[in-house]
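Supplementary Text 2. Reproducibility record for the structural model of the 175-residue chain.

All settings were left at their defaults, and a single model was retained for analysis rather than an ensemble. We include the record here because the model underlies the residue-level annotations in Supplementary Table 4.
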Amino acid sequence: FDGVDDWLQTASVDFGATDKVTLWAAIRKLSDAATGVVAELSNNFSNAPGTFLFAAPSSGGTVKFRFVSKGTLVGDASTSAATYSAPYSAVVGASGDIAGDRATMRVNSAVAATSTSDQGAGAFGNHPLHIGRRGVDGTLPFKGRLYGLVIRGAATPDPTISRVERYLNAKSRAY
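Retained model, structure tokens:
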């Protein structure tokens, strides 16, 4: 993604039967200058319940990686560790649990951020998936490479999380 005009969008993906999601992405972010959406379920997580967002970076470079899981309220797992400054390659794993009020993000197999904020109620929704930028207005373009993206609408056991991280690392050589 060139950070200007590249992006992908799917038809609506129905996660309405679950309040849990697991996401993995093998990426190389090339800039921390502006917020870049790697993947977002819905046009804008702020405007819809039952969504998630993975951004690299977020907040104009202050937050290096951000994962948001949202029922009717937001659970925000973010990290601003300088070690994640661009250019940076990583396999990022994130999980959201609306009913369990938990959002967790792993960077290169290590837990990097956890939120236990109230995420409200409900399940993940039936929304389009936007990859590489925000869908509602085409803003927040990601500048970097995406080597692989896996999204699962369910809780995922730790051994499976590790297997997927190893698989994506083999594709990207992130760590």
